[in-house]
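Lecture notes, continued. The same structure-token format from the folding unit now serves as the input rather than the output. Read the line below as a description of shape only.
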């Protein structure tokens, strides 16, 4: 069996896609990248990736196509639009979409892919930009077991946990459940810290107390929303980089849709969605989602 690594086309080199593609290059895969923002391709070019002038140029000769894009409309138009890539991919190509999009959109594109003789899985990620850089993402896959198995070695070059949640779209359902919970505990963490600091507590001391107590959670452990408590988090860098409020607001909209379709009660998720909408419309859309602390600070006396 040949040990040659499959040529990969990588589309969407933002906060997440950029470092993910760089990890594939570092693992020895021949990677061709494309992003509509040319600047996003510069760093990848220096890392050793080939660059393309369009998505269709990037996928020429690729055995595997990975996309990491902002939303479902963009993913649908990339693959199934007028000049959709499905028309030009060779039969048997494996498409891995790691964007967070509606499960229904993921199923629509996967069905179109199947009709075109292309294998497709949804493989949204959890872990944030630090995990994307470190190659320690969690991939949450939906699709045929054999396609997930074929994707596994590639995903392992970018992540450390690879789950198969179920059939096509199941990866997106699990991802949205997780992100709704993330939004809720981030807001709760910000509320607790804001209240404690207003009572004169040091946010570092309060964080250490809650981390060792029953309020401990991921936001406190690795993504503290209070500036200056942790060094390498967006809160300590003007809430730049990380996971944008716009994207969290999108995910909470997807959670609301899933809840309506499945007749599930999500009172906390719905409230989190409204708070992130308020924060987004107050002008914070491009800040990291931990900046929700600022919304609470502004609403105090
Ligand atoms: P981003 O906005 O930083 O990056 C998106 C990139 O896609 C940009 O570089 C943009 O120029 C490019 N793009 C948009 N339309 C395109 C098109 N038609 N063709 C080619 N390139 C195009 O977003 P991100 O933070 O990297 O997130 C990407 C996806 O990953 C989203 O679906 C998001 O919900 C999800 N996600 C993000 C994080 C995070 O912490 N940032 C964590 C988990 C999942």
């Amino acid at each position: 069996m040949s040990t040659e690594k499959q040529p990969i086309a990588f589309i969407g080199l933002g906060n997440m896609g950029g470092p993910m593609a760089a990890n594939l290059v570092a693992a020895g895969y021949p990677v061709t990248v494309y992003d509509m923002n040319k600047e996003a391709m510069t760093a990848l070019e220096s890392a050793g990736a080939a660059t393309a002038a369009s998505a269709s140029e990037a996928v020429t000769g690729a055995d595997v196509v990975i996309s990491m894009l902002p939303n479902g409309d963009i993913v649908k138009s990339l693959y199934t639009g007028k000049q959709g890539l499905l028309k030009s991919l060779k039969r048997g190509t494996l498409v891995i979409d790691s964007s967070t999009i509606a499960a229904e959109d993921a199923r629509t594109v996967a069905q179109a892919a199947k009709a075109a003789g292309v294998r497709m899985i949804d493989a949204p990620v959890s872990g944030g930009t630090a995990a994307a850089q470190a190659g320690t993402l969690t991939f949450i896959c939906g699709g045929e077991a054999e396609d997930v198995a074929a994707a596994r070695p590639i995903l392992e070059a970018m992540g450390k946990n690879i789950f198969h949640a179920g059939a096509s779209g199941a990866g997106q359902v699990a991802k949205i459940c997780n992100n709704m919970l993330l939004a809720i505990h981030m807001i709760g963490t910000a509320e607790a810290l804001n209240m404690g600091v207003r009572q004169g507590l040091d946010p570092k001391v309060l964080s250490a107390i809650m981390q060792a107590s029953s309020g401990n959670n991921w936001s406190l452990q690795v993504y503290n929303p209070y500036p200056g408590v942790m060094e390498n988090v967006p809160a300590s860098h003007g809430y730049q980089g990380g996971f944008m409020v716009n994207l969290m607001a999108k995910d909470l909209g997807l959670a609301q849709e899933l809840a309506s379709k499945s007749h599930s009660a999500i009172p906390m998720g719905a409230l989190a969605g409204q708070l992130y909408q308020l924060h987004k419309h107050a002008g914070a859309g491009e800040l990291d989602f931990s900046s929700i602390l600022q919304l609470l600070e502004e609403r105090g006396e």
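Point for the exam: The chain has two domains: 8-167, 173-299.
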